[in-house]
Amino acid sequence: MDPDFIRSDVGTLSLSMYHIDWGLQTTHAGGGACLSYGWFISKVFSLPNNKNRNQQLQMYISTDTSTAVFFAIQFEDGLTKNSTEGYTFDECKTLHQNGIRQLLQWCRQNETYSRDLTPLVNYSNSILFHIHMAHTKLYSFVLSYV
Question: Could you tell me the superkingdom of the organism this chain comes from (predicted)?
Fold first, then answer.
């Protein structure tokens, strides 16, 4: 993530190349997965407007998952820590597979999925994101206008 792309209210925020690993899996004969869950909460930050108004802000992640896994994310108000309508865990399309640059999406009222994070740009109290995952290695996440 280009450091000029994000303005943080609590100092510099770098959003690329995190390696976060939650969960333990045994692979020997007779073994199984030990369900472990993890949470990651970002710093509070705000996103600048893009000069090209025809582009959407989207979030991509790169993960390595094992069996019986999930990855979900929600955006929250930077001041109150309340979930942001339209971007909650319940509305997030949960990911259950490995992948590089997987596009995150949230369900809308008409049961279609949206990947557009543009409504969160210049959110009045800034925002943070909250990740919930199990048996997942999170290698990176990228916010990008496309």
Answer: Eukaryota
> Which secondary-structure segment (H or E) carries 72?
strand 57-77
Quickly count: other Cβ atoms within 10 Å of residue 108's Cβ.
11
Q: What does the alpha-carbon distance between residue 31 and residue 112 come to, in Å, rounded to a whole number? A: 39
Instruction: Locate the domains of the chain by residue range.
Output: 7-145
pLDDT digits (tens, 9 = 90+) for 2-52: 333 444 443 333 343 334 444 444 333 333 333 357 788 888 988 877 777
If you count DSSP H runs as helices and E runs as strands, how many of each does the chain have, helices first? 0, 11
Token pair for 7: 């303005």
Q: Round to whole Å and give the CA distance between 144 and 55.
A: 9
β-strands 24-25, 7-8 pairing:
unpaired
Enter the CATH code of domain 7-145. 2.60.120
